[in-house]
Task: structure prediction
Amino acid sequence: MADESESLTVSGPGDEGRADEATTTKPKKKQRPFWQELPMLIGIAAVITALVVTFIGRPYVIPSQSMEPTLHGCTGCTGDRIYVQKLSYYFGDPKPGDVVVFVGPSDSWNKHYTSIRSRNTVVRGAQNFFSFFGLVPPDENDLVKRVIATGGQTVQCCDAQGRILVDGKPLDEPYVVAERNNPFDPAHPDIQFNAGGRAFGPVKVPDGNLWVMGDNRRESADSRYHQDDQYHGTVPVSDVRGKAVYKIWPLGRIGFVRAQDPQTN
Result:
């Protein structure tokens, strides 16, 4: 016989719901301190940055005056920083008028280039590492010029007015620096002079290649200067790093880099 003094628990209205809630409620997960999450956030940001630099675009510094006035750069002054995007050329080749960055395609282009990397192994390794994220320039002879003619076209200089011809038609080049009172060209004092020889061509650009020239013609060692190499001065499209689209520094020159097709006149 049961002891009458044994207490019995009687469930009242609502007790069942409270019991279920007690059994299903999970303890809250303790949030990690920020200092523990910081390395993971830095790693994610580094991966995203590397992907952007590799597949979308990266900044470059203009080292010379060969593209003035479009792009500024000279000894002893602050050269333009430009953003060069790669996306356009995933879907098509460069077009006449595009301002492109490319790596020197032959010894003729690269004979004066010296490595920008330190001789110190540790420092050089750090430079290569940060270059992967776009914080240090790549160790290659990157050049910037404007596309004048593309594969299959014939380029030469000049007509009676000193204009470049592509497939026999003169180009309209409002972006080119005008030089007045040129002692080397008394017949046409307003026409640019190429220090390596004003006249050239005709040169037929091979398929898959580009003929490129600087906007500052007298200060640009461009396709005209490399006609003795295996590409006859042209640049393979495969050596193009991307299209210059924006000036990002200095603040006073921020703005778009215009692609002006000189063949549409």
Remarks:
- The CA atoms of residues 172 and 204 lie 20 Å apart.
